[in-house]
Amino acid sequence: MKTTKFSFKYWQWETIIVTMIGYALFYFVRKNFSLAMPGLQAEFGISKLELGTFLTLHGVIYGLSRFANGIISDRGSARIVASVGLMLCALVNIFFGFSDKAAEWVIAIAANYGTTWAFTSVLIYIMGIVWIINGYCQGMGVPPITKILTHWIAPKELATKMSIWNMSHSIGAGLVFGLCGWYIMPHMGIDVSGDVEKVAMITQNLANVENADIMNFARHFGAWRYCFIIPALFAICGSVCIFFFVKNQPSDIGLPEVIEKKKANESSEQKAEYKALVRRKVFGNRLIWTLALANFFVYVVRFAFLDWGPMLLTESKGLSIALATTLCIVFEFVGGNIGMVVAGWATDHIFKNKAHHTCTFCTLGALLSVLIFWLIPDTAPWWVLMIPFTFIGFFIYGPQALLGVSAANQATNKAAATANGILGIFGYASTIISGVVFGSLIDKYGWDAAYMIAIAMALLGVITLLTMWRAKADGYDE
After folding, report:
1. CA end-to-end span of the chain, whole Å?
2. Complete DSSP assignment for 205-269
3. Do 391 and 269 contact (CB within 8 A), yes or no?
4. Which residue among 41, 75, 82, 308 is the one 20 to 30 A from 68 at the CA level?
5. Is 363 helix (H, G, I), strand (E, B) or coil?
């Protein structure tokens, strides 16, 4: 018995750690876009509306993909889905890094047939299509890993251990911010600071940016492509690790399943019974849809400061690119990681495994933190701005992690991936607001509009979560 227990704990933590690393690398080939956006705007004159459209299309497709791959993961090998998905994301990112070369090739072919196309227009279409494909491949990450973890972790400890696992989001985003903002952008690319024509173009495209930052872009012209190519190389390694070191469930290596799984899965795996369970536990479950709606509001707030963070900090608060990168990393590493762990611990030890209670308080905390950060004048020292900005990350990553945990518990581990697929659709449908709507409003009315939308979304999130306050912690006894 001791040997079995030791083996189970060993494999449980190996699964948690390897999938943490693997999912952090999904972020390497997704959130790298945020650091590349200023470079894309500088070099090609791509507007915030167009950048926001990229974010929206990527997010919507990602949400739909999470749903589709949730169903696939529930019925197939989750390990293979996750591994293949990360490999495809890496390959797509490498292609994105050469998208300007692809645009030149398309224009050359068109010219052979007597057609003239504008380079920027072709480039935007190519980048959009490639980033949409990346969005689908990204959806092969969370659902299969959620499925795997619910087979390795009992419901009574799922909130705590899933919160630890969810640190992968912040670790991945923080590391890729540091890789791109501290290393790639300063050291890669071509120095064109002496090229009058190039600098003039950059100055025109970045009229609202400090002159020092314009020259910084000029000194590292073209570095944006390495923000896609270099992280992709790390992702390829992560894909291989998931494939070889992760097991779908304990029984795959002769270990006993978790007790709660046995209680919940006494019925056979017959197709009709599975469909009936999914209808009852997921599609016909009011709580799943409530959690999904709350996820929409939470993700608008999260993406307002994650996807737009570098631009928001440089343009609305006057920080340099280096300081903006630093605040984004602190937002992820300190605020996000501590917030997720504290929220998970509080769920299991204070709120009696009721994750939706923790999410309510966290979303309210995020609302207040956004308000405080907005009201601080842009003349304040960077470290003063960092405090409420970090607390936004602290509070928003609690519900970001726990809404999925709550959905998994309500749907049971038999349909956890499908339930999280629905949450994914709603979560990434939020990019309609945080992407194209944000980009359009920022272009027209400035950054104050973005702050007001974030506060409104947080308030709606709190109200939504309050409607399920009396719900049970899970659906295993139903």
Report:
1. 31
2. HTTTS-HHHHHHHHHTBTGGGHHHHHHHHHHHHHHHHHHHH--SSGGGGTPPPPHHHHHHT-S--
3. no
4. 308
5. helix
Model confidence pLDDT, tens digit, residues 59-99 = 889 878 888 887 788 777 889 999 999 999 999 999 999 99
Rounded CA-CA distance 4/390 in Å is: 42
Q: Which CATH superfamily is domain 17-245+270-466 in?
A: MFS general substrate transporter like domains (1.20.1250.20)
pLDDT on residue 364: 96
Domain ranges of the chain: 17-245+270-466
Task: For residues 48 and 66, give the distance between their C-alpha atoms in angstroms, rounded to a whole number.
Answer: 26
- 3-class secondary structure, 173: helix
CB atoms within 10 A of CB 314: 21
pLDDT band at 125 (very low <50, low <70, confident <90, very high): very high
Question: How far apart are the C-alpha atoms of 283 and 223, rounded to whole Å?
Answer: 46
Count of all residues that appear for the chain in the document: 478
DSSP string, 83-116: HHHHHHHHHHHHHHHTHHHHHHHHHHHHHHTT--
**Mean pLDDT (whole number) for 15-44:** 89
| CA pair distance 61, 286, nearest whole angstrom | 24
Amino acid making up residue 272: A
pTM of the model: 0.75
297-350 confidence digits (pLDDT tens): 999 999 888 888 888 898 889 887 778 889 989 998 889 889 888 988 888 888
Q: How confident is the model at residue 459 (pLDDT cuts 50, 70, 90)?
A: very high
Q: What percent of the chain has pLDDT over 90?
A: 35
Q: What is the pLDDT of residue 424?
A: 76
CB contact burial 277-295 (16+ within 10 A = b; e otherwise): bbeebbeebebbbbbbbbb
pLDDT digits (tens, 9 = 90+) for 385-406: 999 999 999 999 889 888 988 8
Burial 199-222 (b: 16+ CB within 10 A, else e): bebbbebbeebeeebbebbbbbbe
Backbone dihedral angles phi then psi of residue 257, each to the nearest 5 degrees: -75, 160
Cα–Cα distance for residue pair 214/217, rounded to 1 Å: 5
State the Cα–Cα distance between residues 255 and 301, nearest whole angstrom.
41
CB-based contacts of 441, cutoff 8 Å, min separation 6: 449, 450, 453
The two structure tokens encoding residue 224? 């944006």
Q: Which two tokens stand for residue 197?
A: 């024509």
For 418, the token pair is 């499908």
